[in-house]
Amino acid sequence: MPFPDLPNGHALFVLLLTVFALYLFRRDDIPLETSCVVVLLVLTMGFTFAPFHNFNGHLEPMEFFSGFGHEALVAVCALMVAGQGLVRTGALEPIGRFLARIWKTAPLFSLLLTLLIAGILSAFVNNTPIVVLLLPILISVAVRSNRSPSGLLLPMGFATIVGGMATTIGTSTNLLVVSVAADLGLERFGMFDFMLPAAIAGAIAVVYLWLVAPKITPQRQALMKNTSPRIFTAQLHINEDSFADGKPLSEVIGKTDGMMKVTRIHRGSDATIMPMPDAIIRAGDKLRVTDSPDRLKEYEQVLGARLYKSGQEVNDDHPLTAENQQLSELVVTPGSPLAGRSLKDVSFMNQYGLVAIALHRADRVVDMHNKGLGKVTLHVGDVLLVQGGQNEISEFKKRGDILVLDATTDLPRSHRAPRALIIMGLVILFAAVGLLPIAVSALGGALLMILTHCITWRDAMNALSAPVVLIVAASLALGIGMTETGAAEYLAQAFVSVLHGAPPTVLLSGLMLLLAILTNVVSNNAAAVIGTPIAVSVATQLNLPPEPFVIAVLFGANMSFATPMAYKTNLLVMNAGGYKFSDFVKVGVPLVILMWISLSIILPILYDF
């Protein structure tokens, strides 16, 4: 079959711009947002100054901005907002505690379970919060077992990408491919239409990530070896409805998976009880514990206790607000109104609207005796862990008389975790059964997250990613240009001519490999949008059903394993584990080849080629 003649001038312009765009997208020194705006501007200006006419009529340059209102982008943004609801309510944290518990008894089985949970969750939830949740758990496991986390973090990160291939909402790449294919006239894919090939190939990938990847991953020094270096001393106040009331100390510590270290038990105004395993804890007791801020808040939640007195609880009558709670670390500096005084002396809670819950002193563990944190005389250099509303902490920073460290974190609204899980379940259910399009289902879920106070509008805005929005819009614009000008058809003809005479299985496999290479060099979303119209054109020229070719593009564009810049979670894992570029090549390239070969066999069998 002869190689096709060069396309028309507009198609050639789009092809050259696509190559230029792919070059810009991989440049680390140019913000991705800038590259996307440049591509959109050049594309619209080119077709404004040189109008294009085809059999559909005049191609309006403003059509290239239609991606900003495309259902795929609406679905991607809505899912990011809805997923933020799971993060802000701490709905995923019980999974993290469960994994941390089983790692102690069966490390090899625990790694497999971690990979499976990471993959399954990523089929329905954006994999970035999954990675963020699991990173500190795996690093902590590695530190406690005196081993390098290198063999754990990279397999976990790759497992989330593999799991994301299974459903139409698993990744933004999947949503784009499905939406672009529908725009080209194909019947819309259902949520689980390609789950079977993804599950079979994913099972093979998980075995590789479980048994092979940890052994071939070079040992690296984790950059996040200690995610919470400051250890604070605090008192857990036991309420009548606390789990600890009436339980022996050994059972209370067991409830925290053995992590909590109790140094004293204070009872009444004077009594101090030694923390013996059989000591019975009673309501009103104060357990002195030392740990990181995250662990202290976890103990408070698990035990149903308080890190501050019951009279200081967060409610409508208290200066603290029940929403937008944050933890922040304050340093007592020379000249500070706290230096040499106690919190009670300065009426800290009433004056600042904040509650102090723990204290860090660099040279030693703070001895509160039985008087509580409020009566401890503060020294210069002490670090207070305080809880309060976002507005109160912001106002506190503006005062300038006490140093606020850059360690402020939002506290999860854990009491709303069940409703966040129900909302996300409904989003998935309505889309899965075809009751609502995923864009409508996800948008409704995002709104429900806000209306039920799982997140605020500020959280929703923070959940949106400008690079993701712009890369999707720019990629869709290039896809429109390639389809309307005939550039996609030209590439399809060139692809078929190069593999002329090869059976359809080879063409499908070659297309998937081409996209797998492309996605590790440029954005996976860009690769997906560019590859989808080419896949449809190839299938049309061969008089074959286009669905398997579109799915080949979807799977190929998701094989972002070979380079750290191929996917954003790769960069998170690279930073946390101290990996080098070559580590991704060493572990990721075999995974790409394994997935490519597996799917090259599975897809023709399932689609009866």
TrEMBL record:
Q: Which UniProt keywords apply?
A: Membrane, Repeat, Transmembrane, Transmembrane helix, Transport
Task: Write down the Gene3D superfamilies for this protein, in alphabetical order.
Answer: Regulator of K+ conductance, C-terminal domain
Q: Which domain of life is it from?
A: Bacteria
According to the record, the segments passing through the membrane are 6-25, 32-52, 72-91, 103-124, 130-146, 158-182, 194-213, 421-451, 463-482, 494-518, 549-567, 587-607
Topology within the bilayer? Multi-pass membrane protein
Q: Tell me where it resides.
A: Membrane
Domain RCK C-terminal: start-end pairs? 220-305, 315-402
List the residue ranges forming a coiled coil, or say none: none
Query: Is the keyword Ribosomal protein assigned to this protein?
Result: no
Q: Which Pfam families match?
A: CitMHS (PF03600), TrkA_C (PF02080)
Q: What protein is this chain from?
A: SLC13 family permease
